[in-house]
Design brief:
By secondary structure, the protein is of the alpha+beta class. The protein contains 15 helices and 41 strands. The strands form 12 sheets. Strands 14-20-19-18-17 form a 5-stranded mixed sheet, with no helix packed on it. A 4-stranded antiparallel sheet has the order 1-31-30-29. A 4-stranded antiparallel sheet has the order 2-3-4-5, with no helix packed on it. A hairpin with a 2-residue loop joins strand 7 and strand 8. Helix 2 runs antiparallel to helix 14, helix 5 packs antiparallel against helix 6 and helix 5 packs parallel to helix 8. The two termini are about 60 Å apart.
Length: about 775
């Protein structure tokens, strides 16, 4: 009976846990990639020239209340004093009017309003032109018009003339009765109080408190629209632009088109409704000031620019536009946003130069910087995840080499690879990789004191006394090693590098299997986040990690077997299948409860999908992995982050919303400093059409509106920053861009203009971290071959 029982169990096991068996040839590495796919359901995106924002901030002790561009010069008003922008500094203008409340460039002159009257500057000196304080100016039918609170004037070249008819203005409500040649007329009316004036459709429009009016000869038309109404009676500014007349209010914009008045509010995509001022842009765009930042309106798109990333203050009081540059007067100073012609290829060259100029690299690793005070300047952060972070750079340079054949990129990839395998060599246990390495004589600052969760950091000295290495290694680190080293092995490694890459993957996998599917630290205990054992994953307290960690373990053994052919790793996969880890893979992405959703898990998962789908040979498992990828990307899709889009499209050949991903790359700011940013107050935080927030949040925000990110690059983190005290290396951007180039989602630029595809040396070097001067990284045994 016992023998029959065993036979039945064996048959059941064969059915329930099919043994995966395949042959794997080294030269076939990556054959599952969409690089060789016959059909792709996405079209390459051309790397066309676009306008890249470059920000600058000039802080002031008092608010900047007005700004104007005239004759190529920029003037601003600070505390009522007229200032000129010279050499990126605001300097007082000698002989300028005092106590300026409004400054406008209209026609061929600059106009300033003070409590003592109105002044004009036409190229040589300021001259008084009226003893009243004007509210606003406009150009109408080729002439300058100005408005006081109760009258409208026309400038004749020397002085202003009131255009009020001899008998005064008649209201459009006046009844005129013609009977037997007799005429009954009402008394004239006042046109004020006037706040703004604009020329629209050959007509002078007036913004009065709470409403619009227009002048029709002798008549004041107090209700010039047939349909619609303003979103609020609290009105701030008026601007005519083409077929539209815009009115800013505290609840969005009123938009007059013909005689219809519609609104632009949060539900229409306006990022913030409390608008303060308006200005016409340089490319048919509209600039909108608000009490919480500035907005650029383009056709079908709103772009948000907030403090402290783009502006020195939140409240925008005035905006002036020059030749591809915008000046924003705020309570904290003058914000300047310039636009320069770029391609993505040029942006890549710019960011690669930034890696050198800021001093992000050390011993093959890539580090974030932090501000250590005025005396010490910028120091490199020796973090919990130096290996995982550097894995992004290894992947970026590997993709670049594979896409272009650039030997310099391969050299950079090899240097990063050496750093990663050193994290294995430096520990006494083969396959137990360190998180980070600290140089005793060479590094500055303080070693991290925090470990996983509430646990203290674990730092271990080397026998030679030159280094400390950090333990308590997590799956974050492990996944980064597998993802990037497998890529390097398949696409860029040569000679001994290839063999060392195989050994690196085999070492880590063997350590995990031999230690009961855990990372076992120097104290013999599993690390906090390095567990793939059934005692953890198949028990209630491991439920939330079951899908992701189970998929990680499958990826480890599949990658190790693919690179080495060692049957030990195939047997490891069979063990995982017996534990039914594969049955939790499809739904590995958590969407509930909210407190269990963490953004870095998404990066870990997609780092798994890449080797899994490329290496798997069993069709049943591949079906599971692809369905898991489909589900996970459907959750991630709303973020439009290239890392997720390109991995999905590269592995499947399916539509991956490449245009949205490319726009995300273009939207990245060139400024890598981690300024504070705030978006949770915005009025447009609602799901975008075609996207469902399965995993939380409401909608993605552009990287322009947050900060430089690596790791998960979440577009759902609405507020953040480090007060300008940190700088993030742009390796996340570089990884995404070169992945897109490798898979073909992004084309190489067509232009051959050197100024549009590359950058030269920086004229003024960024003050970054000083060069590393400690001991060199030890030479590995494989490097001596």
């Amino acid at each position: 009976m016992s023998l029959i029982y065993l036979v039945v169990l064996s048959l059941l096991a064969a059915v329930c846990y099919p043994r995966v068996s395949w042959s794997y040839a080294e030269e076939d590495a990556g054959a599952g990639s969409a690089k060789t796919a016959a059909a792709r359901l996405w079209n390459p995106v051309a790397d066309t020239v676009y306008e890249q924002e470059v920000g600058e901030k000039i802080t002031t002790a008092e608010p900047v209340t007005a700004v104007a561009v005239h004759g190529g010069s920029v003037h601003a008003v600070v505390g009522g004093v007229l200032m000129s922008l010279q050499d990126n500094k605001l300097t007082k203008v000698a002989g300028g009017p005092e106590g300026i409340t409004r400054l406008r460039s209209v026609g061929d002159a600059l106009w300033a309003v003070t409590p003592k009257g109105t002044f004009r500057f036409a190229g040589s000196s300021w001259e008084p032109v009226h003893d009243q304080s004007f509210k606003d100016f406009c150009l109408h039918e080729g002439q300058v018009y100005g408005a006081t609170e109760n009258d409208v004037f026309r400038f004749d070249g020397k002085s202003f003339t009131n255009i009020k008819p001899a008998g005064g203005y008649l209201s459009s409500d006046t009844s005129v009765v013609m009977d037997d040649f007799s005429q009954v007329l009402a008394d004239p009316v006042e046109i004020g109080p006037v706040e703004r004036i604009a020329s629209y459709s050959g007509t002078l429009y007036l913004l009065r408190r709470g409403g619009l009016a227009l002048l029709e000869g002798k008549t004041l038309v107090t209700d010039p629209v047939d349909w619609g109404s303003l979103p609020s009676p609290v009105t701030r500014d008026l601007l005519a632009q083409g077929s539209r007349l815009y009115v800013s209010t505290d609840r969005g914009l009123g938009v007059v088109r013909g005689m219809a008045l519609t609104t632009l509010r949060g539900a229409d995509g306006l990022p913030y409704e409390d608008t303060t001022c308006l200005a016409a842009g340089f490319d048919r765009d509209l600039w909108i000031g608000t009490s919480r930042g500035a907005i650029r309106k383009l056709e079908g798109e709103f772009q948000y620019f907030g403090a402290k990333h783009w502006l020195p203050g939140d409240y925008v009081r005035d905006i002036a536009v020059g030749d591809r540059v915008v000046y924003l007067a705020t309570d904290g100073g003058l914000g300047i946003i310039r636009y320069e012609s770029y391609t993505l290829a040029k942006k890549s060259a710019y960011f690669e130069r930034e890696l050198e100029d800021w001093g992000f690299k050390r011993l093959g690793f890539v580090h974030k910087l932090y501000w250590a005070g005025d005396q010490n300047g910028w120091w490199r952060e020796i973090s919990d995840n130096d290996g995982g972070n550097t894995a992004q750079y290894l992947a970026a340079m590997t993709f670049k080499y594979a896409a272009t054949g650039d030997e310099r990129a391969r050299e950079e990839a090899v240097e990063a690879f050496r750093a990663l395998v050193w994290l294995d060599d430096i520990t006494p246990k083969p396959g137990f990789i360190a998180r980070s390495v600290w140089s005793v004589p060479g590094d500055k600052g303080q070693r991290s004191t925090r470990g996983s969760g509430p646990l203290p950091a674990k730092w271990y000295p080397t026998e030679d006394g030159l280094w400390y290495w950090k333990g308590d290694t997590s799956s974050d680190e492990v996944n980064g090693h597998y993802y990037s080293v497998c890529l390097f092995h398949d696409l860029a490694a040569k000679g001994p590098e290839k063999e060392r890459a195989r050994r690196h993957i085999a070492n880590i996998t063997s350590h995990i299997i031999d230690n009961g599917w855990v990372l076992r630290d120097m104290d013999g205990k599993p690390t906090r986040w390095g567990r793939w054992d059934p005692e953890y994953l198949l028990k209630p307290y491991g439920f939330e990690a079951r899908g992701l960690n189970g998929m990680e373990a499958q990826m480890y053994v599949q990658a190790a077997f693919a690179l080495t052919g060692d049957a030990k790793f195939e047997s490891g996969l069979q063990q995982l299948l017996k534990w039914r880890y594969h049955t939790y893979t499809v739904r590995q992405k958590l969407t509930f409860p909210p407190e269990s959703i963490v953004t870095w898990d998404d990066e870990l998962a997609f780092r798994c999908y890449h080797p899994l789908v490329r290496y798997v040979r069993d069709p049943e498992l591949k079906s599971i992995y692809l369905r898991s990828l489909e589900r996970s990307w459907e959750v991630q899709r709303m973020q439009q982050v290239p890392f997720f889009n390109f991995i999905y499209g590269g592995l499947t050949g399916n539509d991956c919303e490449a245009p949205q991903a490319v726009q995300h790359l273009r939207d990245w700011s060139l400024d890598l400093v981690n300024h504070d940013y705030h978006n949770s107050h915005r009025s447009d935080l609602f799901p975008q059409r075609g996207y469902t927030p399965y995993g939380g949040g409401t909608r993605a925000i552009s990287p322009r509106e947050s900060e430089a990110k690596w790791g998960s690059r979440s577009a759902l983190q609405y507020d953040g920053g480090e007060g300008g005290h940190g700088v993030t290396p742009p390796i996340g951007w570089l990884e995404d861009y070169w992945m897109g180039r490798y898979y073909g989602m992004i084309e190489a630029p067509k232009t051959k203009d050197p100024a549009l595809v590359g950058v030269g040396p920086r004229k003024e070097k960024v003050r970054g971290a000083a060069p590393y001067t400690g001991p060199a990284r030890p030479i590995g045994d494989w490097e001596k071959q």
